[in-house]
Design goal:
The complex is a heterodimer. By secondary structure, chain A is of the alpha+beta class. Chain A is built from 8 helices and 20 strands. Chain A is elongated. In chain A, 43% of the residues are buried. Chain B has 33 helices and 6 strands. The chains are: A alpha+beta, B mainly alpha.
Chain lengths: 359, 751
């Protein structure tokens, strides 16, 4: 169906781009990235990491202070927002409150050289895509939050932009709606083959919608890759902890054979992929779900004591005291939970824990 | 929900249409304007006025008085205008070039920069008597020619060159090449330079001019250190002190008293169970609708030689009535009455700004009500007190009407300036020196307010709802506070009653019979065969006032909002000095504006005195800061993402300003319009220098009546003005109230 559309999706390329405010605030520090056409790429990171600034530099709302930005093959580094073929869906939606839904969606078209009927037809088609054709004459204030969101998407979509940008588009929606809208966004993106750059601080959202994720930290890129790659093979402690939480435990690599490393933490020994590390001090990242607890320890296990037990419905969350400090663990066993003060045996599951350089 | 866009897959031409040559028609437009000014329109100002078009049939285009620059030069006269053709030719040659060509920007900037500079130099270099400066005369010899003020032609050329210059700057990449924003910044800077900085600088210079028109520092010092200015006679028990000390003492006292009363009213309005506190808020409207000297007139009716209170006391105790009110006591009472509402307005913001949760926290920490007030509430209000004091100080310094009406022998700077210009002495240098002293006082206070207090506000209200309630005042505070507030509010009410009463009395104190003859003299209307004839003495000035105010108001609002847009929405080099410059006009007293305009615009190149235009201009730049502040306040409530989304949708900044910002700012625009209209009607200090027989304003007409001791007419006229403005402000409140609700409805679920 949507293969009949002329997708204008283009790539985005950053070459050593920096953004400086005044003399000493460095919002984005010398980053380079490549975004393939017709993919959905997420910029993920804690607040203040530079992800929104990066997005706004693609839009042309901020002008880079160093480096080059290319959209398609065109150098747009110094081009203002008006002249870039990029549209953006804002966190607050930024619907013009004094214009009807149709006028909002037509707004950009009227500056793109379309005549009146064409503008109207395209705007209506855009509203139909998001399922709001019947609401064209309403004011934005007469729509629900989710509907306003879709109007904002339609308004950006109808311009058939080379790149479509989303700035935390779901943060004003409630949890249920969030899942639904993010699936719709993904569906439209894949259906029309759009290049989408998406900013969020919610790692679950990022994992769910993205083709690729760029994790940012302190104005730089911490790691970039497909969702599964980031979750299962983080290259540094920050990414391991930011995506899906992790216990970061200092360890010693005793020996490396082929791709396998033998490590020990205190008396506890474990074997896992070496990932290019050599014997010596390192860090092992263990997801809470990969921490296994048993009531009857065997000698090769770590002895541990439950210090906190929290019931959160679908699973139990435990804080466990171990010889090398407290660990965080979750367990699906909710019918017969462990109790505080109980002595346990603790081990790591065979797959899952990841070796990282010493942090 | 996925449907196809199959029917809309024509290839778009969007990108090229958007970015390519959008600026081209604008460029050509300004070039045409420039040529029009040079080739077709009369270069010099027309004697009959800006809007008289007799010149079209009277010797145009060959008579030098009406000829365009090109014709003048072609006849071999005033050859100094000839070089202006060069920049026009140069920019015309640019039309063929692409915008990305570096020469495009360079030629535009160089040519129009040269053109503007030449325009200014020749304007100032050659005046009514030939060369303006002895140096030029000795360099080039006697010119044997002269020129008058600039007219349409010069105006067109100047405006054209200015905008071509900003186009060049934009093409160089300033503000991302945004022509609209660069042009807006350029025009605001140009306007402020011509109508604020130039007159003030000119006035500073004229303080150094000796009687034979040469410059001398000694002249300045002799005038500056004059005993009339800085004498300390009164301290030593002698006769009188210098005017500078008088003004300073008055302003400090008035600042302190109004701050105190403002605080008292604010406390009553927000932290007491006082029943009529809502009515007290009505006080805040008073200063907007009252011409500044009206309070002074009412004081005379009460305490003057034949005033009600004076005669009552005299009869009661059998003492001789005195003129004690004329002088410091009278001015001080009048100013405190007039400016307390302003302080109230400031203090109410401050007192309400203290977060209730802080006070509630203190209460839960076991502080008594009095201790809460002493240790938490009051310390948090302190920066606001300083702010209110400085505002009272500036207002008192700048006040002209009350000292004029009530001053007696107590001379202050603002009236001294007036008498130096209009009095028998006619000493421009003296007026300039006095104005400099006055300006330094107010600028000092303004500077202190902005930079010393600017960041010291403890007001803790955030955008988030603060659910708490302010505690009421402790008893030992509330009793005296309510007592003072009620007393002073009562006094204010009496004063306003006196104004109305005074307008319907034959001759106050001497013949108290009721009469409407003052109204009849002022506003009588005769019905004749050929329609209505406005026979009243006041109609002329009344209609002039309405007309001038109505022209000035939209200009003020437009300039103010444009400036506010630049300040809140754009980032550019030198923004903070730009902001300082635009807000400066708030601190320049009207008398100083008046004097500086007279000195600057009485001679070529800009001859404006005696016209209605100069009145309009003086209002626009006097009241501009109000428009700016109103605009900033409401624009900072508009989410910036609205502009940004408009920009990413392909609209440029002009479209965004027109289609997004302006429609959402309707209430602010209306408020700025009405406020500037009303202040233009009540202003007196600048106006009194600038009125002419043809363009007399209501306030200066009233002052004239007062000086002739014709109090009845003056008061009747003032009363009429107050009611007219009450009507205007009321209508505004209705209109804005409705718009605001409409807007809230439409933005309700936005965020």
């Amino acid at each position: 169906m949507s293969d009949t559309i002329n997708s204008k999706a283009a790539s985005v390329r950053f070459e050593q781009v920096s953004k400086r405010y005044g003399a000493d605030v460095l919002a984005v520090d010398n980053i380079s990235l490549d975004i393939e056409p017709s993919t959905l790429v997420t910029l993920l990171g804690p607040s203040g990491c530079g992800k929104t600034t990066t997005l706004r530099m693609i839009a042309g709302l901020e002008i880079a202070t160093g480096g080059r930005i290319l959209i398609g093959d065109k150098d747009v580094t110094k081009l203002p927002a008006t002249d870039r073929d990029v549209s953006m869906v804002f966190q607050s939606y930024a619907l013009f409150p004094h214009m009807s839904v149709l006028e909002n969606v037509s707004y950009g078209l009227s500056y793109s050289g379309f005549n009146k009927t064409e503008t109207r037809d395209r705007a209506m088609a855009g509203l139909d895509i998001v399922g709001l054709g019947a609401y064209a004459s309403r004011l934005p204030s007469e729509l629900s939050g989710g509907q306003q969101q879709r109007v904002a998407v339609a308004r950006a979509l109808v311009l058939e932009p080379q790149v479509l940008l989303f700035d935390e588009p779901l943060s004003n929606l409630d949890a249920k709606l969030r899942r639904q809208v993010r699936e719709e966004i993904r569906e439209i993106q894949q259906g029309l083959g759009l290049t989408v750059v998406y900013v969020t601080h919610d790692q679950e959202e990022a994992l769910a919608v993205s083709d690729r994720i760029i994790v940012m930290r302190n104005a730089a890129i911490a790691q970039e890759g497909a969702p599964r790659e980031l979750f299962e093979a983080p290259t540094n402690a920050f990414v391991a902890d930011f995506i899906g939480e992790a216990n970061l435990i200092p360890c010693q690599i005793d020996s490396v054979t082929g791709d396998t490393a033998n490590i020990h933490i205190g008396d506890y020994a474990h074997t896992l992929p070496a990932r290019g590390l050599t014997p010596g001090a390192a860090t092992v990242a263990v997801r809470p779900s990969r921490v296994q607890l048993v009531a009857n320890p065997t000698p090769d296990m770590i002895t541990a004591t439950i210090s906190k037990a929290t019931y959160v419905g679908v699973h139990m969350e435990y804080t466990v005291d171990t010889p090398f400090g407290p660990l965080f663990a979750v367990s699906g066993e909710v019918d017969d939970p462990f109790t505080v003060g109980q002595d346990m045996g603790l081990s790591f599951s065979g797959s899952g824990p990841v070796l990282l350089p010493e942090s | 929900m996925m449907r196809s866009l199959c029917c809309h897959n024509k290839t778009l031409v969007m990108q090229t249409a958007r970015s390519g040559d959008v600026g081209r028609p604008v460029l050509i437009f300004w070039i045409i304007i420039g040529w029009l000014g040079f080739l077709a329109l009369p270069w010099y100002a027309i004697e009959d006025g800006f809007f008289a078009f007799e010149w079209l049939f009277d010797g145009y285009p060959f008579d030098t008085d009406y000829a365009p620059a090109a014709f003048i030069v072609a006849q071999g006269e005033k050859l100094w205008l000839a070089p202006l053709v060069l920049p026009l030719l140069a920019v015309t040659a640019v039309i063929g070039r692409p915008k990305s060509d570096p020469l495009y920007a360079t030629i535009l900037i160089a040519a129009s920069g040269f053109g503007l500079a030449w325009l200014v130099l020749q304007g100032f270099g050659i005046g009514l008597r030939g060369w303006q400066f002895g140096m030029l005369e000795s360099l080039f010899g006697d010119l044997g020619d002269r020129q008058f003020g600039m007219g349409y032609g010069a105006l067109f050329v100047a405006v054209s060159l200015l905008f071509l210059f900003t186009q060049g700057i934009a093409a160089r990449g300033a503000i991302n090449g945004d022509v609209f924003v660069v042009s807006a910044i350029g025009s605001v800077i140009a306007l402020i330079t011509v109508f604020v900085f130039f007159p003030i600088a000119n006035m500073l210079a004229s303080a150094f001019i000796t009687e034979d028109q040469s410059y001398s520092i000694a002249v300045f010092f002799s005038k500056f250190f004059d005993d009339r200015l800085w004498g300390l006679g009164c301290v030593a028990g002698g006769h009188r002190c210098g005017v500078a000390w008088n003004s300073l003492f008055l302003a400090v006292s008035v600042g302190l008293l109004t701050t105190l009363l403002g605080l008292v009213f604010a406390l009553v309005a927000t932290r007491s169970g006082f029943k009529y506190k809502r009515a007290m808020r009505a006080l805040t409207v008073l200063p907007i609708i009252t011409p500044p000297f009206v309070i002074g007139l009412a004081i005379i009716l009460l305490f003057g030689l034949s005033g009600t209170v004076t005669t009552f006391v005299a009869d009661l105790f059998g003492v001789q009535p005195t003129r004690w009110i004329y002088g410091l006591p009278g001015i001080m009472i009048a100013q405190v009455l007039a400016f307390t509402p302003v302080a109230f307005l400031v203090m109410i913001g401050v007192v309400e700004g203290v977060s209730p949760s802080m006070e509630e926290a203190a209460q839960t920490l076991r502080a008594s009500k009095w201790e809460v007030f002493r240790t938490v509430s009051f310390p948090l209000m302190r920066p606001g007190l300083a702010n209110a004091f400085l505002i009272g100080f500036i207002e008192s310094m700048a006040d002209f009407g009350n000292p004029l009406v009530l001053g007696g022998n107590y001379d202050v700077l603002s009236t001294e300036i007036f008498f130096a210009i209009v009095g028998a002495q006619y000493d421009q240098g003296q007026a300039a020196v006095l104005a400099i002293v006055l300006l330094s006082f107010t600028l000092g206070a303004f500077y202190a307010q902005r930079f010393w207090l600017g960041n010291k506000s403890y007001t803790t209200v955030s955008g988030k709802g603060d659910a708490g309630v302010h505690p009421t005042m402790p008893k030992m505070l509330s009793v005296p506070v309510i007592f003072i507030a009620v007393g002073w509010a009562g006094f204010t009410a009496v004063i306003y009653c006196m104004i109305v009463a005074g307008s319907v009395v034959e001759l106050w104190g001497l013949n108290n019979s009721l009469t409407f003859k003052h109204y009849a003299t002022a506003f009588s209307v005769a019905l004749e065969d050929n329609g209505v004839r406005w026979t009243g003495a006041a109609w002329n000035s009344f209609w002039t006032t309405i007309q001038i105010a109505a022209i000035a108001a939209p200009l003020t609002a437009a300039l103010g909002l444009l400036t506010a847009y630049l300040l809140t929405r754009q980032n550019f080099a030198g923004k903070s000095s730009f902001e300082f410059g635009t807000m400066l006009s708030f601190a320049i007293p009207g008398t100083v504006i008046g004097v500086s305009y007279i000195l600057a615009f009485n001679v070529p190149p800009l001859e404006l005195t005696g016209t209605g235009i100069i009145l309009v201009i003086s209002f626009v730049f006097r009241n501009m800061s109000v428009g700016v502040r109103a605009g900033i306040a409401s624009m900072s409530q508009l989410d910036k993402s609205l502009d940004e989304s408009s920009l990413t949708l392909g609209a440029n900044s002009w479209h965004t300003f027109r289609r997004i910002i302006l429609p959402l700012l309707k209430p602010a625009i209306l408020a700025a319009l009405v406020y500037s209209f009303v202040t233009a009607m009540t202003a007196v200090s600048a106006v009194i220098f600038l009125v002419s027989a043809e363009y007399d304003m209501a306030t200066s007409y009233i002052i004239g009546r007062v000086e002739n001791n014709d109090y009845g007419l003056a008061i009747a006229y003032s009363t009429t003005l107050i009611f007219v403005m009450l009507l205007v402000v009321g209508a505004l409140q209705l209109a804005v109230g409705r718009t605001a609700i409409g807007r809230r409805k439409s933005t309700g679920q936005q965020s």
